[in-house]
Amino acid sequence: MKLVPRVAEMIKKSGYTRDYIVMKIEEYEGKGKGVNLKTISNWCTGRSKPNVERLFILAKICKCKTDDFYEWVDEEIDSSDTIE
User: Fold this and answer.
1) The CATH classification of domain 2-77, taken from the options 3.40.190.10, 3.30.230.70, 1.10.260.40, 3.20.20.70
2) Digit-coded pLDDT (tens) for 42-69
3) Residue 24 and residue 42: Cα distance in Å, rounded?
4) How far apart are CA 20 and CA 84, in angstroms?
5) What DSSP designation does 48 have?
């Protein structure tokens, strides 16, 4: 199984821009403690993941559940990897 990010999809579905998300996270965490656009981009591509606190903040901003941001999918098994 593989954890696939749906962060970009959920941000888009919320109708908010990434700039707005950055601003709102800073409001929750305090000035200078928020994230930047690169961080949001990394969450969207799966390069990095938000910590639990930020995931809850993101869910509150986007008006969804924390588990909406990631999805477990079955990985395809390569036929050359079969056990004989």
Assistant:
1) 1.10.260.40
2) 999 999 999 999 999 999 999 999 999 9
3) 18
4) 54
5) S
Distance of CA 59 to the CA centre of its chain: 9
> If we measure between CA atoms, which residue out of 65, 69, 33, 28 comes closest to residue 50?
69
Closest CA to 66 of 55, 74, 75: 55
**Cα(54)–Cα(43) distance, rounded to whole angstroms?**
11
Output the pTM of the full model: 0.81
Where are the domains positioned within the chain? 2-77
